C-alpha cells in the first residue's frame, strides 16, 4: 500500500451556537466570513477561529442571508438578503454597511471577479490620474476611499427565475442578463469578460424532480469594448457614490433639525384655541411691540408656557440647528452636487463619441435630463441657504425683542445694551410678525397648526406635499424677466426651478431621472448577451431541495482559451470534467482501508463537496462508500494533472445535447484515482462541506449538522507527523532497510484532541439523510 502523507495542519476547531449556511474565505487575508441561519454575518480569523466582528440581523437590512462574496482585494464583503431583497456591501475593518441597493428578486448566488486582461489603452487609463481630483474640491467625507479600485471588477448576482445582473465595482448595474431559466446555483464571469457560465436548478412543477442545467452565455460585447466599459463603469461608480454621499448629507441635515424648533408654532396654535378675545395673535404681538403692553392672555402664554428660560433655550436651539444645517449644505451638499454635475457632463461627452459608446447604450439626451435634474437640485439647495440665512436674522431680532419684553413683564433688570432698539429694529420685527404670525385655517386643516413660523424644516420633509410656506417671488426682477421672455424661459441652458417643492422631493426626482438614464446601458449590454451553450446535466430528488444543502452541484472555471471547462462533482461516486470537446469522469479508488479487496469495486468513496483550490487542484470532502461501521470522512487534494493522459485524446466523448448528461454516463471515459498523498482523515467529525482559499493555502471544513468547523493550513505538515516520519526514516537507515512506502498510519496531530472527543455532531438524523 502507498504511504499516507497528509500535508494539512489543523489550526482551529469550534462548535458554533447557530447553523452555518454560507462560508467564504477572504482572497487576501486569513479571514473567513460566515452567515448563519439566524441572519448573522460573522468574520473569523484563521488562528484559533477568533471572531473579528459580527453583524447581527436587523429590520432595515434583513435577516435571511442567501449569498456571500468578497471583493478581489478583500476589503469589502458583499452579502445578499432574501427577505428584504437587498445587497449589502460591508467594510472588512468594522461591521457597518458602506453601500446597499435593492434588487427585484432574492439572490441565490453571487460572484465578485476582477478583470485581468491587459492592454496598452487600459494600462495608460489605470495609470492616469483622475482629473476630477485636480478640478473638484475634495469632499470632507469621501466614500471613494472604500469603492475605488485599480482594475475593473464586477459583482455578478444570480437569483430565482433566471435573474442575473452585473454591477461594476459592486456599485452600479452595467448589465441585466436575460434568457436563463431556473434558479441560479452557481455562476462565473470569465476574467476576460468573454463568457458567463451559469448553473441553474429548473423545476417545472412542485411535485416533479428539479433538473440541473448548465448555460454558457456569450458576453463578447463587454470584452470587445473593455476600455470603454472600464471608463463608463468608473463614471457610473463615481455617480453612484456621489448619490450615496448626497443622501447621507441630507440625512445628517434632517438629524440636525430638531423638533424643539416647532415649539413656537404649537404654542401659538394652542393660544389661538384657548384665548377668549377676538384679537388676532398678530395684533396681540403688534400691541406689545408698539405700546409695550400685552393682554393678560398673552402674558400668560409668554410667562407661564414659553417662559424666559424656555425662550433662551429655543433661541439657542434654532441658532445651533440652523448653523449646522447651513454648514452641511455648503460643505457637503453643494460640493457633492457640483461633483455629480461634473461627472455627468463628462459622461455626456463620452456618449457623444458614438463610435466608442453608442454600442454600449450611452444616450446623450438621457444624460442631458440627468444634468438638468442635478441643476434643479443645486438651485433648491441654494434656496434653502437663503431661507436659513433669512430665518436666522429674523429669529435673532425677534427673540432679542421678546426676551427684553418678557424681562420687563417680570420686572427683572434689563441690561442697557439689550434695552436699545432703533426704529429700524422695530420695523424689522414688525415685518417678521406681519409675515409669520398670520393665522391660516387652511394650514390647520393640512398640518394641525395655524402658524408656520419655522420655515426650514419643511424643506427637509420627505413627502410629496407642496411647501407650506414657499418663498415669496413677487417683485423678483429675474422671475418677472423670465415670465415676460417665453423663449428664454424654455431655454435648455436654464435649470427648471420648483419653488413649491421640498429639497427631499427634488432629490428623489433627481435620483429617479439619473437611475433611468443609467439603466439604458444595462439593458443594451444585457440584450447583447446571448446563449452559446445549454446542457441538461441531471435531475435531483426532492430531498436535496431543502435549505440545509448549500452544496455546489457543479464546479466550473473559465480558462484562458475562453472555452468553458466544466468540473462536475456528482453527488455519489464520480467527478466529471469537460476537456475541450470531451468529458472525463473521475472515480475515487480505495486508498484508506487496506482490508478492502481492491479488485472488488474501485469506487470506494462518494464525494460530498468540492471546490477549486487553484487552477490545478480541486479540494474534496469524501466519504467511504463501503458498508462498515463509522464511514470515515476524508479531506483530500485532487491534482488535475493526474487525470489527463494521452489516451484521453483518443477517447473523446461525443456529447448528445438532446439527452441529459447523467443519461450518457456509461459513455463517458472514466479515470479511477488512488490518492497517494495530500489527504487526511477527519476523525470524530461528520464532515460535509468545505471552503478553500488556494492563495492563502487554507481551508475550513463544516460538519453535516452545520455547527462544527475545523480550520486547516493546507501546505504545512503537522509537527507531530513530521517528527514521526523523521524518526521512522532514522530507524530505517540505522537498520539498513530500504526506503519503501509504509502502510497508511493514523498519526494525525489534532490540536483540539480534547475538544474533538467532547464535541460530537448533534444531528444524527441529518447525517443519515445525507448518506447515498
UniProtKB/TrEMBL annotation:
<dbReference type="Pfam" id="PF23405">
    <property type="entry name" value="WD40_APC4_C-half"/>
</dbReference>
<dbReference type="GO" id="GO:0051301">
    <property type="term" value="P:cell division"/>
</dbReference>
<dbReference type="InterPro" id="IPR024789">
    <property type="entry name" value="APC4"/>
</dbReference>
<keyword id="KW-0498">Mitosis</keyword>
<feature type="domain" description="Anaphase-promoting complex subunit 4 C-terminal half WD40">
    <location>
        <begin position="543"/>
        <end position="713"/>
    </location>
</feature>
<comment type="similarity">
    <text>Belongs to the APC4 family.</text>
</comment>
<feature type="compositionally biased region" description="Acidic residues">
    <location>
        <begin position="716"/>
        <end position="730"/>
    </location>
</feature>
<feature type="compositionally biased region" description="Acidic residues">
    <location>
        <begin position="755"/>
        <end position="772"/>
    </location>
</feature>
<dbReference type="Pfam" id="PF12896">
    <property type="entry name" value="ANAPC4"/>
</dbReference>
<dbReference type="GO" id="GO:0030071">
    <property type="term" value="P:regulation of mitotic metaphase/anaphase transition"/>
</dbReference>
<feature type="domain" description="Anaphase-promoting complex subunit 4 long">
    <location>
        <begin position="214"/>
        <end position="412"/>
    </location>
</feature>
<dbReference type="GO" id="GO:0031145">
    <property type="term" value="P:anaphase-promoting complex-dependent catabolic process"/>
</dbReference>
<dbReference type="GO" id="GO:0070979">
    <property type="term" value="P:protein K11-linked ubiquitination"/>
</dbReference>
<feature type="domain" description="Anaphase-promoting complex subunit 4-like WD40">
    <location>
        <begin position="23"/>
        <end position="114"/>
    </location>
</feature>
<dbReference type="InterPro" id="IPR024790">
    <property type="entry name" value="APC4_long_dom"/>
</dbReference>
<dbReference type="GO" id="GO:0034399">
    <property type="term" value="C:nuclear periphery"/>
</dbReference>
<keyword id="KW-0132">Cell division</keyword>
<feature type="region of interest" description="Disordered">
    <location>
        <begin position="716"/>
        <end position="772"/>
    </location>
</feature>
<dbReference type="InterPro" id="IPR017169">
    <property type="entry name" value="APC4_metazoa"/>
</dbReference>
<dbReference type="InterPro" id="IPR036322">
    <property type="entry name" value="WD40_repeat_dom_sf"/>
</dbReference>
<dbReference type="Pfam" id="PF12894">
    <property type="entry name" value="ANAPC4_WD40"/>
</dbReference>
<keyword id="KW-0131">Cell cycle</keyword>
<comment type="function">
    <text>Component of the anaphase promoting complex/cyclosome (APC/C), a cell cycle-regulated E3 ubiquitin ligase that controls progression through mitosis and the G1 phase of the cell cycle.</text>
</comment>
<keyword id="KW-0833">Ubl conjugation pathway</keyword>
<protein>
    <recommendedName>
        <fullName>Anaphase-promoting complex subunit 4</fullName>
    </recommendedName>
</protein>
<dbReference type="InterPro" id="IPR024977">
    <property type="entry name" value="Apc4-like_WD40_dom"/>
</dbReference>
<dbReference type="GO" id="GO:0005680">
    <property type="term" value="C:anaphase-promoting complex"/>
</dbReference>
<comment type="pathway">
    <text>Protein modification; protein ubiquitination.</text>
</comment>
<dbReference type="InterPro" id="IPR056358">
    <property type="entry name" value="APC4_C"/>
</dbReference>
<dbReference type="InterPro" id="IPR015943">
    <property type="entry name" value="WD40/YVTN_repeat-like_dom_sf"/>
</dbReference>
Amino acid at each position: 500500500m502507498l504511504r499516507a502523507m497528509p500535508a494539512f495542519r489543523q489550526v482551529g476547531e469550534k462548535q458554533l451556537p447557530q447553523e452555518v449556511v454560507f462560508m467564504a474565505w477572504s482572497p487576501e487575508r486569513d479571514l473567513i466570513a460566515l452567515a448563519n441561519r439566524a441572519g448573522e454575518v460573522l468574520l473569523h480569523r484563521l488562528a484559533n477561529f477568533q471572531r473579528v466582528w459580527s453583524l447581527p440581523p436587523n429590520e432595515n437590512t434583513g435577516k435571511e442571508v442567501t449569498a456571500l462574496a468578497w471583493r478581489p482585494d478583500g476589503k469589502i464583503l458583499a452579502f445578499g438578503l432574501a427577505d428584504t431583497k437587498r445587497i449589502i456591501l460591508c467594510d472588512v475593518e468594522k461591521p457597518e454597511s458602506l453601500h446597499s441597493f435593492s434588487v427585484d428578486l432574492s439572490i441565490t448566488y453571487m460572484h465578485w471577479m476582477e478583470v485581468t486582461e491587459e492592454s496598452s489603452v487600459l494600462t495608460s487609463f489605470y495609470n492616469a490620474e483622475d482629473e476630477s481630483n485636480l478640478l473638484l474640491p475634495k469632499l470632507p467625507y469621501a466614500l471613494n476611499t472604500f469603492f475605488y479600485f485599480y482594475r475593473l471588477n464586477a459583482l455578478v448576482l444570480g437569483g430565482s427565475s433566471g435573474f442575473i445582473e452585473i454591477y461594476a465595482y459592486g456599485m452600479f448595474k452595467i448589465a441585466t442578463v436575460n434568457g436563463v431559466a431556473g434558479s441560479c446555483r452557481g455562476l462565473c464571469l470569465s476574467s476576460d469578460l468573454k463568457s458567463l457560465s451559469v448553473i441553474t436548478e429548473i423545476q417545472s412543477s412542485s411535485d416533479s424532480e428539479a433538473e440541473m442545467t448548465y448555460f454558457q452565455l456569450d458576453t463578447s460585447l463587454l470584452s470587445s469594448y473593455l476600455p470603454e466599459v472600464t471608463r463608463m463603469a468608473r463614471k457610473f461608480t463615481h455617480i453612484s457614490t456621489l448619490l450615496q454621499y448626497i443622501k447621507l448629507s441630507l440625512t445628517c441635515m434632517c438629524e440636525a433639525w430638531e423638533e424643539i424648533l416647532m415649539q413656537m408654532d404649537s404654542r401659538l396654535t394652542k393660544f389661538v384655541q384657548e384665548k377668549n378675545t377676538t384679537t388676532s395673535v398678530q395684533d396681540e404681538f403688534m400691541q406689545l411691540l408698539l405700546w409695550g403692553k400685552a393682554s393678560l392672555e398673552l402674558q400668560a402664554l409668554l410667562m407661564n408656557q414659553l417662559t424666559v428660560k424656555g425662550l433662551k433655550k429655543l433661541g439657542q436651539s434654532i441658532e445651533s440647528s440652523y448653523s449646522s444645517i447651513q454648514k452641511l449644505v455648503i460643505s457637503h451638499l453643494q460640493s457633492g452636487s457640483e461633483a455629480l454635475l461634473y461627472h455627468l457632463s463628462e459622461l455626456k461627452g463620452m456618449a457623444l463619441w458614438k463610435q466608442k459608446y453608442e454600442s454600449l447604450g450611452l444616450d446623450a439626451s438621457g444624460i442631458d435630463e440627468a444634468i438638468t435634474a442635478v441643476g434643479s437640485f443645486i438651485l433648491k439647495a441654494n434656496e434653502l441657504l437663503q431661507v436659513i440665512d433669512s430665518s436666522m436674522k429674523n429669529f435673532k431680532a425677534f427673540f432679542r425683542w421678546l426676551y427684553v419684553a418678557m424681562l420687563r413683564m417680570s420686572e427683572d433688570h434689563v441690561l442697557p445694551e439689550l434695552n436699545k432698539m432703533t426704529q429700524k429694529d422695530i420695523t424689522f420685527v414688525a415685518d417678521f410678525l406681519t409675515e409669520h404670525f398670520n393665522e391660516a385655517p387652511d394650514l390647520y386643516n393640512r398640518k394641525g397648526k395655524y402658524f408656520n413660523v419655522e420655515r426650514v424644516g419643511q424643506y427637509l420633509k420627505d413627502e410629496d406635499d407642496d411647501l407650506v410656506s414657499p418663498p415669496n417671488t413677487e417683485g423678483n426682477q429675474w422671475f418677472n424677466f423670465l415670465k415676460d421672455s417665453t423663449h428664454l424661459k424654455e431655454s435648455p441652458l436654464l435649470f427648471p426651478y420648483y419653488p413649491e417643492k421640498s429639497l427631499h422631493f427634488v432629490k428623489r426626482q433627481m435620483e429617479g431621472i439619473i437611475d433611468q438614464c443609467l439603466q439604458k446601458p444595462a439593458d443594451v449590454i444585457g440584450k447583447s448577451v446571448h446563449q452559446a451553450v445549454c446542457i441538461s446535466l441531471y435531475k435531483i430528488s426532492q430531498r436535496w431541495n431543502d435549505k440545509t444543502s448549500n452544496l455546489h452541484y457543479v464546479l466550473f472555471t473559465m480558462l484562458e482559451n475562453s472555452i468553458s471547462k466544466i468540473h462536475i462533482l456528482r453527488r455519489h461516486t464520480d467527478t466529471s470534467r469537460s476537456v475541450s470537446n470531451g468529458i472525463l469522469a473521475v472515480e475515487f479508488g480505495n486508498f484508506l482501508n487496506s482490508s478492502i479487496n481492491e479488485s472488488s469495486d474501485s469506487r470506494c468513496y462518494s464525494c460530498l463537496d468540492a471546490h477549486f483550490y487553484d487552477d490545478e487542484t480541486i479540494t474534496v470532502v469524501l466519504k467511504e462508500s463501503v458498508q462498515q461501521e463509522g464511514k470515515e470522512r476524508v479531506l483530500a487534494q485532487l491534482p488535475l494533472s493526474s487525470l489527463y493522459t494521452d489516451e484521453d485524446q483518443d477517447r473523446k466523448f461525443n456529447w448528445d445535447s438532446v439527452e441529459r448528461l447523467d443519461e450518457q454516463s456509461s459513455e463517458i471515459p472514466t479515470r479511477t484515482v488512488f490518492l497517494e498523498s495530500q489527504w487526511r482523515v477527519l476523525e470524530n467529525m461528520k464532515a460535509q462541506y468545505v471552503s478553500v482559499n488556494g492563495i492563502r493555502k487554507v481551508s475550513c471544513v463544516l460538519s453535516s449538522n452545520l455547527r462544527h468547523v475545523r480550520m486547516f493550513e493546507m501546505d504545512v505538515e503537522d509537527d507531530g507527523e513530521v517528527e514521526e516520519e523523521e524518526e521512522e526514516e532514522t530507524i530505517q537507515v540505522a537498520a539498513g532497510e530500504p526506503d519503501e512506502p509504509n502502510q497508511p498510519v493514523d498519526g494525525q496531530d489534532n490540536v483540539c484532541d480534547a475538544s474533538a472527543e467532547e464535541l460530537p455532531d448533534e444531528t444524527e438524523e441529518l447525517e443519515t439523510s445525507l448518506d447515498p
